[in-house]
Specification:
The structure is a homodimer.
Chain A (H helix, E strand, L loop, with lengths): L14 E4 L5 H14 L2 E6 L2 H18 L4 E14 L2 E14 L3
Helix pairs in contact in A: 1-2
Amino acid sequence: MIIEPVKPHTTTPGVLKVSAKSNPNSVAGALAAVLRERDSAELQAVGAGAINQAVKAVAIARAYLRPSNFELVCVPAFIDVEISGNERTGISLAVYRREVAE
Amino acid sequence: MIIEPVKPHTTTPGVLKVSAKSNPNSVAGALAAVLRERDSAELQAVGAGAINQAVKAVAIARAYLRPSNFELVCVPAFIDVEISGNERTGISLAVYRREVAE
């Protein structure tokens, strides 16, 4: 008997998938919205173009959250992502907010 | 009288310039070497290919520094870089080490 692993039906909250075509300002807006509510978020990107947009989004989101006295730090890690049935290596950027003194 | 700004003759210590052709493992090795000696380092990259290699280097350097109980976090920012006389926008990744409990 083969037991299939349980696959989640919904995307984990706070996970934003970024593509090479994503607008970094839009991703930054979404990221800032998540980080106003939660301590952390995650950007997932596969490929140089997507990773570039993800990093730019974090740089922009820092400016969005500065008036709320939040600084952002991120921790990159490799992840395996399934795209159209193929396993590909991507990058996860775990993004954490830190409260800063005024 | 025009007073020329003083230009540093050497690269700032701890700043590593990453190109699209950089080997992420090599950059990670250099980054880990800096972060064994200092609390922080900086990666500078211009263009999607270079930024991709820089982010991968940080992900790899995390593994290199884990046995020393250091975790890495990075803070991306936009920077203006002069390349062949042209001003281009790049990304600076400030990388900080954090001591973690065993």
